[in-house]
Structure formats: structure tokens, C-alpha cells
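=== RUN LOG ===
request id: a7f3
mode: sequence -> structure
chains: 1
length: 355
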Amino acid sequence: MQETTSLSLDPFFNLSMDLLCIAGYDGYFKKVNPALVKLLGYSEEELFSRPIREFIYVEDRDLTARYRENLKNNVPLVNYENRYVCKSGEIIWLHWTSIPLEDEELVYAIAKNITHKKKLEKERIDYLISLVDKNQELKQLNYTTSHDLRAPVNNLLSIFEVLDFSKIDDNEILETLNYMKKATEGLNKSLNTYVDLLSKKEGSDLELEEVDFEWVLNHVKSSIGSLLINANVTFKVDFSTLKGVRHNVNYMESIFLNLITNSIKYGMPNTPPVIFITSRILKGRKQLIYTDNGLGFDMEKVGDKIFGLNKKFHNNGDSKGVGLYLVYNHITSLGGKISVDSEVDKGTTFTISFA
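=== RESULT ===
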């Protein structure tokens, strides 16, 4: 009966366009389908003779090994992504679903090639970073140009102040000088107004309102419901002391979204994420405290870089170094502050103080 079942599954196994394999608890492939062989470019003999770890991209090996330990504990691995190195040297992204059979000490896995999707994501992030950089450059150019132009304009005004118009007998020259003086005064007024507008623009073009923490959190949780379920996330929330603050609702949603997805992305492999969110008023300052039980940071090494653009601190291929940068800017652009307390493998606490 077992042989008949095996034979009946062979066409499915051999003809599937998805990548199928059976691996042993010893870390070696036991069976691979033609689609996987073709994609990786190794022969079956090469795939069977070397540990699976050797085919995984070096930066992903340790994290993959930690997740594989869960399989040995009879815990399925769902929606896991890592990189493999083809025989040609090409690096590809694979999206895995793996089911362990404890009695047989085997893992049955199916994967999809998501390299193209990852490239598109990287292009999108690179484009976003480029836009942010260009926007900062343009803003700085506006500030610098507007500020620096005022110096020569003020010099012209000072020249008009010292000129003795009573000593000039030519009416045409006097009329021309008066026009020049009025034009310079008008230019100076315009520059002062423009610099003032630039200084106020950071906050004044944002719609501020009383933002309810619980409403925003529920809205964000609803938008990533499947991700929270797959990661088995637990929330422990208490907004009884402070139900909300005056802020921009879109910024607040982005803050919650980036912090929560980071907690999932950098969670401990053997532990479901637990997220604590509380609010308080400390010495008259309204604060939001966000804590998780994830991988944490070595603050001595990364403390001064943690909110930098394109900064990465874990060997997670999905990390783009944008999330915490956005969180920082959403808070500080409206006069708030954010601090971090963290230890490796002991989680992270973010304390947000609002203006």
C-alpha cells in the first residue's frame, strides 16, 4: 500500500512547477523534484551529497538553522523566506512552507521562487530612499538659497541708507535710484516671508487632530491581520491613563505599523512575539511605551545609528533600514522625542514623548 501511494504521487512530484523537496532531520536532501534541480543548477548527486546549509546564502544560514530546530520539535514552518546560491553563483529568494513528520524524521517542503518580487521591492525601497534624499537636498537648497540671498540684499539696502540723495541733481538718476531702493526693499520682504514659510512648513501643512491610540492600533491590526495570525502575535495593551494625543493620524498609523512589523520581522525564532503597549503622563509629558520580546539590539554598537536611513542591524534579508527612520521622523518632525532601551535576545522598549 505504501509503494502504491508513493508511485501515485510521483507525477505530481516530478511535474510540479513549484519547488518540492523532502529533507531529513540530519540536514540533507532526501528527494528533490526536477523544478528545484533546474532552478539551483546542481545535479541530484550534488544536492544529496552536501548539507543543505551549504546551498543557503551565508548571511541566512544561522537564522535558517534556528528556525529548522522548530521543525525538529514538530512545529511547521510557514511563510519563511531565505536566499539560496545557485551553481552559477546567482542568489535567489525562496518562500518556504515546511511540514515535519516526526516519526519519519523527515521534512516535506514546498517553495516558490520570489526573486523577481524581491527585486521589485528593493527597487521600490531604493526609489523611496532616493526621493527622501532628493527631498532633503531640495529643502536644504531652499533654506540655503533663501538665507544667503538676504546678505547681498541687505548690503544693497545699507548702501541706499548711506547715499545722500540731496547731492544728486539729475532727476532721472534720482528716479532710477528710488526704483532700485523700492525693488530691493520688496525683494528683502519677499525673502524674509519665504524663509519664515519654510521654517513653519514642516508642521503647518500637516493636519493635526486628537488621535485615539486604541482606534489607530485596531486599524493597523486589521490591515495586517493575516500577518499577525501567522506570527501568533499577542498584544498586551493599556491606554487607560492616556487615551490619545494631538498628532497626525497618518503618522501615528505609520508609527504603529512599522514598530509592529519590526517586532514580527525580528522576533525570536522559538518564541511567538508578545507586544506590550501602554500610555502614561510622566512629569507632564505625554508618552507611549512600546515593548517587544524580540532579538533586541546591542546598544553599545548601534545606539547612535538606530534611527538612521538605510541602517540594518540584523542578518535579515528583508531588512531595508527604513522603518525606524520613518518612525523617528514622524515623531521628531512634530516636536516629539523617541528613546530606545534594548539588549540582545531580551527585546526592545521604545519610549515616545509627544510635544
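=== NOTES ===
Confidence is low (pLDDT under 50) at residues 1-7.
Residues 132 and 267 are 28 Å apart (CA to CA).
=== END ===
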